[in-house]
Amino acid sequence: MEVNFNGNKKTLYQSVLADEFPDEMGRFGPFGGRYIPETLVPAFTALEAGVKQYLNDPKFIQEWQGELNNWVGRPTALTFAPRLSASWGAEVWLKREDLAHTGAHKINNAIGQALLAKKLGAKQVIAETGAGQHGVASAAACARVGLPCRVFMGAVDIQRQAPNVDRMRQLGAEVCAVESGDKTLRAAIDEAMRDWVSDPGDIYYIIGSAVGPHPYPYLVREFQSVIGREARKQMLEQANDLPDAVFACVGGGSNAIGLFYPLVNDEGIKLIGVEAGGQGSGLGKNAATLATGVPGVLQGAYTMVLQDSDGQVQETQSVSAGLDYSGVGPEHALLQYIGRVRYESATDEEALEALSELCMTEGILTALETAHAFAAAKKWALKHPGKRILIGNSGRGDKDMATLSKHIRGL
Amino acid sequence: MGSYKEIETAINKVNASGQTALIPFFTAGYPCLDKFSSDLIAISEIGDVVEIGIPFSDPMADGMTIQRSSHQALQNGVNLKWIFNQIESVSDQIQAPLVMMSYLNPLLAFGYEALAKRAKSVGVGCFIVPDLPLEESRDLRTALESMDLGLIQLITPATPKQRMIELCAASRGFIYAVTMTGITGSEQGLASSLKNYLDQIIALSKTPVCAGFGVRSAKDVKMIGRHAAGAIVGSALVEAMESESDYIGFLKQLR
Asked: With 80 as the cut, is the pLDDT of residue B74 above it?
């Protein structure tokens, strides 16, 4: 399938540097847009107006920043990893989103959108979740602002991320098991959309990744860019220089866009997104959307999609629930298309190995999702000795203990 | 050869005879592949226009029934090419003009120009694309209209008046008035406020207005018929087909 757009890659690259995306149609070059049921059109019109108003309102930004500082615990640390550095022959720095409240970067966006929902007069918040991190973050943020929260989670994910399900309930959220479709993140998003269609006036949907119809990819990027802004400043302060290469894992791509976006104009920095290589190559065996997908419309946006030649979206496979997704944020599709970011994949096995190495060398139990970034970073470091590497340590791995226990016991 | 005018004409003709147009919807290739073409012929003998559902892996505007039928049809191996071939093989026996309901991605994968050509040749006059709002519809609309085919726009109770006007102007064949905010297959029953809502759309539209979502009984069809040109019956028909009950009898008694 061809990518349709006006203008060539060079022009698009310049537009990215000039920060021109998304445009007024919600496009990142050819990608993005808003493919939604008619019932949701008025809700999206209201959301877009609200986003425009509040994201440009210094008082709102101050309120959100206050929550980030005093409730989330930002700025999160930038940690030098001396033993990992020695082992890889590199200088390795970690941006510690695992230290943020609720244990992952998801909270930056969840609290931002919960505050926005409150301003827009929502009576009910809904959210989807894959690994459960966004569900937990949304449940916590809704409790914080005083709104009821309903979380849709695939039945497969409920099983493999059980501790997070109880956390959400403890935080007062209602958790709805999704038995339709692939019973993972994609089905959860479909179900959240269906719920929203039933009451578009009173529901606010906190989407958890930089995916979906405009303005979500933009909104999530704005709330997650705090990661990259902090990291850039901290690198200059602590390492006295910017990194040579930056790695982040990519499912929908929210932590990656948050880390990359403030670094895009530092053209000397190599940006590398790492997708889930699952059990290896072949449709249905992985979630490497950017590596092997083709453009299509999934869940409201024109983006890269894992699909067959008939346009049917394919199921994915990954040890990490948070990366197990057949689509990807439209801005990543553009950054790949113009060559500003390179996207690779790491297999389940490589991710598990990387997770163990980080535990043993630095005493950090990272999330299975995040471990994919470490696996790719290690490979790169071994090929490029002596380089300064920044890794987005997007979340902690406590939630993965059920999966890890099986692995440790060789089951 | 399909065209949107043929659909409009078919509905107007039924209305002129004092009846409400009946538009049955069913998912292609469900419950099984072998019966699709014979089902289509039988349904076209009762329906004034027939709406064929193209299965998609992510039917985000549909309820459990259509989700289930789409999923099973895909398991059965259905794709758009096969559906076109099946329709073509029995096109001389099909008694009603055809409409296709599809999410955008399968159409995108087929290619818009190829789609318009193939649809035209097998007698499909219009498309309903539930995840394609007016703002994103230019490319597909252009491809379809160049072959005298059209896009049917949906209007919902949440649609503001100004947008109703734009949607009425853009819609071809008929206007699909969604009776409730929600997904397909509801059993809530039709609201009494439906009358004002339908009358408002009819006042704005030159194209026939047909109502769907939650239409389950002869009573529903009759109520809609007092205001709108036609009634669309989807989930209730699919349920009758999957339970292997007499779905043709079910359709007949809706009149």
From this structure: yes
Q: Residue holding tokens 């794709």?
A: B79
**Full set of structural domains in chain B with CATH:** 4-244 (3.20.20.70)
Average pLDDT over residues A27-38: 97
Report CA-CA distances (Å) from A370 to A352, A381, B93, B163, B219. 10, 17, 59, 45, 57
With bands split at pLDDT 50, 70 and 90, how would you rate the model's confidence at B181?
Answer: confident
The CA radius of gyration of chain A, in Å to the nearest whole number, is 19
- Cβ of A305 under 8 Å from any chain B Cβ? yes
Q: Does one domain contain both A173 and A275?
A: no
Q: Do A300 and B105 touch (CB under 8 A)?
A: no
Domains identified in chain A, total number: 2
Bridge partner residues of A295 (DSSP):
A304
pLDDT by residue (tens digit) across A280-303?
Answer: 988 889 999 998 999 999 999 999
Residues A280 and A197 in one domain: no
Question: Can you give the pTM of this predicted structure?
Answer: 0.96
Say yes or no for a CB contact (<8 Å) between A190 and B56.
no
Cα-based angle B146, B148, B154 (whole degrees, multiple of 5): 100
Contacts for B102 with CB less than 8 Å, ≥ 6 apart:
B53, B54, B56, B80, B127, B128, B129
Q: Rounded mean pLDDT of B72-83? A: 97
Query: The tokens of B26 are what?
Result: 């069913």
Does A194 sit within 8 Å of B181, measured CB to CB? no
Q: How far is CA A196 from CA A150, A176, A200, B212, in A?
A: 11, 14, 5, 19
Choose among B71, B154, B183: nearest Cβ to A198: B183
Q: Do A185 and A314 reside in the same domain of the chain? A: no
Mutate: best of B54, B56, B57, partner A, most A CBs <10 A? B57
Decide if A108 contacts A72 (C-beta within 8 A).
yes
